[in-house]
Specification:
With 132 residues, this protein is of the alpha+beta class. It is built from 3 helices and 8 strands. Strands 2-3-4-1-5-8-7-6 form an 8-stranded mixed beta sheet. The longest helix is centred in the first third of the chain and has 12 residues. The chain starts with a strand and ends with a strand. Bound molecules: zinc ion.
């Protein structure tokens, strides 16, 4: 595993894209909506990892709910894995709980699943694998 990206919930990509472009000294390399998840994402490369900014596209979006509860900030850590299916099996045997055990198509050409924060010290953990 490596840290593939950090997800950061933001109120407005318009404002935050400007902020992160100035902070990192480079533009995002991609902006992409995942309608099923109710998010628009914006990706920045930093070394081997990335920052994923997440903006809600509707009030029912998990990001909208996160912003209501906690405000802007770090939303999840994503670990990049070679084989998401074998990692799910391994972590289930270790007693971890998944929000859903079926990998879904996420942003940035990935298959993704999320572990439930109650089994990971309150941190929302994403596993992601590059789509073949
Ligand atoms: Zn993510």
């Amino acid at each position: 595993m490596k840290i593939e990206h950090l997800g950061i919930a933001v109120k407005s990509l318009a404002g935050s894209d400007n902020l992160f472009a100035r902070l990192l000294g480079k533009e995002n390399y991609k902006q992409e909506s995942v309608e099923r998840e109710g998010v628009t994402t914006s990706f920045y490369e930093i070394g081997e990892s990335k920052i994923e900014l997440l903006e809600a596209t509707n009030p029912e979006s998990p990001i909208a709910k996160f912003l209501d509860k906690k405000g802007e900030g770090i939303h999840h850590i994503a670990f990049g894995v070679e084989n998401i299916f074998s990692e799910i099996e391994r972590l289930k045997k270790e007693g971890f709980i998944f929000i859903s055990e079926d990998p879904k198509e996420g942003a940035d050409n990935k298959l993704v699943v999320f572990l439930h924060p109650r089994s990971t010290n309150g941190v929302l953990v994403e596993l992601c694998q590059e789509k073949p």
